[in-house]
Structure formats: structure tokens, C-alpha cells
Amino acid sequence: MSTEMTEFYDYVLSFYGKDGIYPMMPMPNLTVIKSATNDLIRILEIKGEEFCGDSIDRELVRDLLISKYNLKFPTN
Fold this sequence. Notes:
The protein is mostly helical.
């Protein structure tokens, strides 16, 4: 695994994981984050777009965590 991808996974977890800014429930783990990220990369490739590992990609992963993995975004 590349350093860039490890940093992106950590970045996503720092927002949506345990002790994150917006901790989702149930708590996403690294395996779920990796899976959602791989889903996003495949979607972007189909659309002819590039994965950059930026805040837009983080938010797109968040959307997949909600829609595909049934995690809940905090409302409080």
C-alpha cells in the first residue's frame, strides 16, 4: 500500500472514525474505508476522472459509506 493511500485512509478516519470530527455509526474501520475508497476509484475511472485523495474524494467516500455501507452521519 502506498504512503499516499495510507494517508488518505487516515484522513478519512480522522473525520468519520472513532474520535473523528463527524464520527459515523456504526464506527467505520479501516477495512470499510479501504473498500469504499476502492469503490470510489472504480467509479471515477469509469467516469474518466482521477482520484486525488483530497477533501472532495473524502466526501465522496463518506457518501458511499452512507449509501452503500449503511453508516449514519451524526446529526448532533
